[in-house]
Amino acid sequence: MGRDSLLEMSGITKSFNQVEVLHGVDLTLNKGEIHALLGENGAGKSTLMNILGGVHQPNRGHIKIEGKEIKMESPRISQEQGISFIHQELNVVTDLTVYENMFLGSELRTKWGTLDVKEMCRQTEDIMLRLGVEISPKTYVRDLETSYKQMIEIAKSLLRRSNIIIMDEPTTSLTDNEVERLFGLMRSLKQSGVSIIYISHKLKEIKEVCDRYTVLRDGHFVGNGSMQEVDLEEITQLMVGKAVSTDAFYHEQTKGDPVLTVKHLTSEGNFHNINFTVSKGEVVGFTGLAGDGRTELFESIYGFRKKYSGDIEVNGHPVKIDHPKKGLQAGIGLVPKNRKENAIIKDLSVIENMSLSSMGNFERRGWIHSKTEREKFQHYKQQLNIKVHDPNRTIDSLSGGNQQKVVIAKWLEVNSDILIFDNPTQGIDVGAKNEIYQHIMNLADQGKAIIILSSEAPEVLRVCDRINIMFQGEITGRFHRDELTEEKIMEYATGSKREAENIG
Amino acid sequence: MANIEINQNQQPTSTSRSKLTWLWSEYSVVVAFVLIFIVAALMNDRFLYLQNQMNILMQVSTIGIIALGMTVVMLSGGIDLSVGSVLAMVGVFSVLSLNATGSIVVGILTALAVGAFAGFINGMLVAKGKIASFIATLGMMAGARSIALYTADGGSIAGDVQGFSSIANTELGIVDLPIIIFIGLTVAIYLLMTKTRFGRYVYALGSNEKAALLSAIRVDRIKVGVYSLCGLLVGVAALIETSRLNSISSSSSGNLYELDAIAAVIIGGTRMTGGKGKVIGTFFGVLLLGVLNNMMNLLNISPHLQGLVKGLIIIVAVFFQKRD
Ligand SMILES: Nc1ncnc2c1ncn2[C@@H]1O[C@H](COP(=O)(O)OP(=O)(O)OP(=O)(O)O)[C@@H](O)[C@H]1O
Ligand SMILES: [Mg+2]
Known about the structure:
- The structure holds 2 protein chains of 2 kinds.
- Chain A is 33% helix and 26% strand.
- Chain A is globular.
- In chain A, strands 6-7-8-3-9-10 form a 6-stranded mixed beta sheet, with helices on both faces.
- Chain A has 17 helices and 22 strands.
- Chain A has helices at residues 45-52, 75-80, 98-102, 117-130, 146-159, 176-191, 203-209, 232-240, 294-302, 324-329, 339-342, 350-355, 370-383, 400-414, 430-445, 457-463, 486-493; strands spanning 5-16, 19-30, 34-38, 60-65, 68-69, 83-86, 164-168, 195-199, 212-217, 220-226, 258-267, 271-279, 283-288, 309-314, 317-319, 332-335, 363-364, 367-368, 418-422, 449-453, 466-471, 474-480.
- By secondary structure, chain A is α/β, with parallel strands linked by helices.
- By secondary structure, chain B is mainly alpha-helical.
- Chain B has one domain: Orthogonal Bundle (ABC transporter involved in vitamin B12 uptake, BtuC).
- Chain B is 73% helix and 3% strand.
- Chain B is built from 14 helices and 4 strands.
- In chain B, the strands form 2 sheets. A two-stranded antiparallel sheet of chain B has the order 1-4. A two-stranded antiparallel ribbon of chain B has the order 2-3.
- Classes of the chains: A alpha/beta, B mainly alpha.
- Chain A binds chain B through residues 15-18, 55-57, 59, 304, 323-325, 327-328, 333-334, 336, 341-348, 352, 356-357, 359, 363, 366-368, 394, 396-397, 410, 414, and chain B through 1-2, 5-6, 8-9, 13, 15, 18, 195-197, 200, 203-204, 206-208, 210-218, 275-276.
- Bound molecules: adenosine-5'-triphosphate and magnesium ion.
């Protein structure tokens, strides 16, 4: 409402299928500020931003930019107003190269009218360097790891000359290190007068980089203000409506027999000579920066990737796994990262997504028994607090965090002895995170072996018994939880320190 | 998703209207079918005769059975261009084995086996050979036709076993057997696609293959199954086609059937890239094409013009369907 407010959204109301999800929300954005948009999963943050981005049309309400009312009828119009949008789910085209993705739809041309590949590559390299990423602009995106894809999305929005950048959870698969670089860039953008709307469930980041905040709860505006005047507890309270305990619920597990033993696992260009063991009832974490190879490592163990050498033993028996189905039969489950690409079947309903990997549990004499499916879903809906209006609708009608909960429910239902979670809390809010961690601890109590891959140091520190740190495809450090701090993780993750590999 | 929401900008929509919107978006082919049906009935009073209605059903039964298989293939994200040629090849082999053994059962089994085997080859090429389905089945299309022509010396062969032609020419009450087979198979494929794990996996595969694989689904086996099933259904269709006239032409039988089948599937609302669509949609798509053909015949439209009318109707039908 200040003189220099750049954007004013007022009274925004939006319904999907007769269900109102935004009830007259206001948002004001000043020039040159970083504005946090906060709220639980399903609060309506992405929907509000999709309205600003011209993806959805509001039922009621006004959008004013520099005092002038604008109808955002399409994403194109929004872009013309100088708004660029990093969507919650990754939208890179995997069959194109990095630079082609960066300039998709706004390719640079030479004076002859041909594509100016050289200049596009130069600019791509330039912006990537500023983000601290070293990838060749001509690499195909399909060969890149999720965190790089996320950085391409970020870089793309930075390339455009925009006054407003919407960042809907841009850092879900990035490490502190990479996030720091991004924040550096965001601050310099702010200096040059660009405003940023920043959505994240990582409150630490919010506190660090944001100037003001707006909080939504269940589609209602519940408050805004300056970041300096509040602490994180107050904000959480606003978001959730009650205080959230961040108590440590970790407790030492009784460790059983080894269930998964990996020896000398090597895959050219991805990981090298990996050795580790996980026992029953244990929670083991793997962390590292982008390009550390942990995702590739566990995709290989699960059977999704086939080109590797070395030995894998489950319960003491050597196994040869060359297909995820065989991985599952050997007792290994994998909750993949980057749900849009790897986990969500967007044309199937919420319920069908939940049951997809464990159809056997829902069959009677070969026929799917939908009543059992429905009941099971109700169970997980309560347990994980999944916000859904109609579970028979396709899963893309859920908010990002709630989709993630369905993905987790799907693997809880599979109930395998060894469960690998790759970035399990992507987009999940503070309160729900605790519930998920609690579930993971319960699984360990039941004697399951749990492996958590995460780029967030606090996450692995909270739930894991032991933590392995990887750097460029090798395990550089192995620690018990008591021996570790976030700083120490960073030293090993960046390769500035390493322990001598004492096996082999 | 994004498209329907535009309709909701106005004041609170009444529930009956939203029901209509839903009906249109989910079953636009049924609506289109009813419209064309009414138009046909108004234009020519012979159209509604029971005998004429049965004729229509009889005429679409072959294409209809093939279209069921095509639906499954297209839901999985593929396409099968070989159905017409495979039909001719199956016909030739089944008549040959029929004449050689004198047994109708052997003739039927040969037809089913040859059809399923051709589909199996298609499936292996797509799943294991990682060849795009368009290319793999294009190869099969040329190959199967050539085998049929070579085996039958380019001509037709007729069955010389009594009773074979009764497969397509038996009537139960007033309903011909092919119609019953077509409707029975529609129900079967519907159940397969909605009530079994196979169907669920086909949708998943067509929608997001990588996620399906990571969900521990044997994606390659499902693909082989999908094409084999389509081949098997082509086998059934070939039996009906052959038995109807008690002969098969290696050069002209099944020509352009793939186009009619694909048209029916697309009109029925199945998405070209897979993952979305309904067996019931295909059923009505097939009927729609049948009614259209029948209407043009009753109205004495020149056969040379019928293709144009059909093409236009297909494009218009698809144009008005909800797209995403
Ligand atoms: N396309 C859609 N169709 C139907 N309902 C939708 C659609 N998109 C969002 N919703 C509903 O709107 C509500 C708000 O969703 P939104 O995606 O805005 O939440 P969010 O605040 O971004 O949550 P998250 O932190 O999980 O991303 C949810 O209840 C969701 O189910
Ligand atoms: Mg969201």
